[in-house]
Amino acid sequence: MNYQNYEKMDLQGSVLRIQKSSIFDGDGLRTVVFLKGCPLRCQWCSTPESHHKSIQTTIDGSITYGCIMTVEEVMVEVRKDIPFYFHSGGGMTVSGGEILTQSEFAYHLVRRACWEGIDTCIETSFYGDWNKIEPILRCTNTAFVDLKLMDPENHKKYTGVPNDIILSNIRKAGSKRSSMKLIIRRPLIPGVNDSKKDLELLGNFLAELPGVDHLQLLPYHRLGTDTYRKLGLTYQLPDIETPSKEHMEQCACITNKYVRTII
Ligand code: SF4
Q1: The domain that contains 240 carries what CATH number?
Q2: What percent helix, strand, coil does the chain show, rounded to 5?
Q3: How many domains are contained in the chain?
Q4: Residue closest to 142 by CA, chosen among 223, 56, 55, 24
Q5: Is residue 112, in this structure, part of any structural domain at all?
Q6: 97: Cβ below 6 Å to ligand 1?
Q7: Which of 21, 60, 143, 154 has a CA-to-CA distance to 108 between 20 and 30 Å?
Q8: Would residue 17 count as lying in a domain?
Q9: Which atom of ligand 1 is nearest to the CA of 96?
């Protein structure tokens, strides 16, 4: 295959890291391309090194986060694992940060992988223009979309941005069934977004959307807090424990009345 003539192969993006053989970011074994840049500031975020699009170093200068790569350079890494995709049903996942911060780069990654017959998956908050999301979805097999809070004030308080754009984009993507699998994810943060009221609102909202395959609840964890210290930042959430299996099941019981829920 002549990769050299492919459109936009030289387009550059800011890549945090490329992780091989992930089993948590879509079907099978995945190569996950983490992009830098995110307009949200979720107080529980475990990857503060992904917030800025620019390359960053720790305050002691010992670690550098991110590098500039072209679409082709990323694809060289992705192609190395094609045999594993074939045997496991895996492929490439583009994640963040927030991939819409570099929507053109994200689009050309999924478009190119699609063109090469590699399964494509994205992880996004949908905080961006629909005009930029829609072309990406056309080249995507599975989309994981985070919906962190239904209550608008709490969404703004805990993530730094309003949720009206996110809700509107989820409505557009989920309004009808399509060949793309749409999975909504909620990271469950005890005391922040695990109230019966917010989970009922979430279930009600998703029940209206036939294009949503299922809801996935993810337990809060405290990974990444050390990175805040290394970057000279303060982790904003007080001590919160990872929710127990029983609590996860209770929350799933609430949303399962409206939408198939997986924990
Ligand atoms: S959207 Fe993701 S990367 Fe961005 S701040 Fe929230 S948890 Fe962190």
Answers
A1: 3.20.20.70
A2: 35, 20, 40
A3: 1
A4: 24
A5: yes
A6: yes
A7: 21
A8: yes
A9: 3
**Which residue in this structure is represented by tokens 């609840």?**
217
136 lines ligand 1 (CB under 6 A): no
101 within ligand 1 shell (Cβ under 6 A): no
- Give the closest residue (by CA) to ligand 1 atom 6: 42
Q: Which atom of ligand 1 is nearest to the CA of 44?
A: 7
Ligand 1 in reach of 41 Cβ (< 6 A): yes
Determine the structural domain holding residue 183 and report its residue range.
9-262
In a domain, 162, yes or no: yes
Query: What tokens were used for 185?
Result: 């994810």
pTM of this structure: 0.95
Q: Is residue 2 part of a domain?
A: no
pLDDT tens string 15-35 = 999 999 999 889 999 999 999
Say yes or no: CB of residue 125 within 6 Å of ligand 1: yes
- Residue given tokens 């969404």 in the structure block: 155
Q: Which residues contact 72 (CB under 8 A, 6 or more apart)?
A: 3, 6, 9, 10
